[in-house]
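Entry for zinc ion complex. Fields follow.
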Amino acid sequence: MRSHLQPFLVQKQQSGKLDAAFFSTVMSEKRTNAILNGLAGATIREINNVAKHFKTTSKEIIEHAPVSSPEKNCDYCAKPFIPAKPKARFCSDACRNKSHRENA
Ligand SMILES: [Zn+2]
């Protein structure tokens, strides 16, 4: 199961920000590892707690979690892609531009 929290935690892990303070106040190491390894999804409460700890918002975490978005097919070239935003319709700026030009 993929989690909205996973890409956020991976980023914090890579920058060395998942320290003892995080594990003692926000989430257990076991729980964090399960999410990092894709074995568990995070609850809204956990996302809120992590957001609070890193002084961000849960909305921000969810919006910046492209791997949790379902794969889509590009409206122009039909290639599958993972949209960075839920409303994205094209795999790239190039496809978006070409589509707009042809439909103009
Ligand atoms: Zn495309």
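NOTE: Residues 74, 76-77, 79, 90-92, 95 surround zinc ion (CB under 6 Å).
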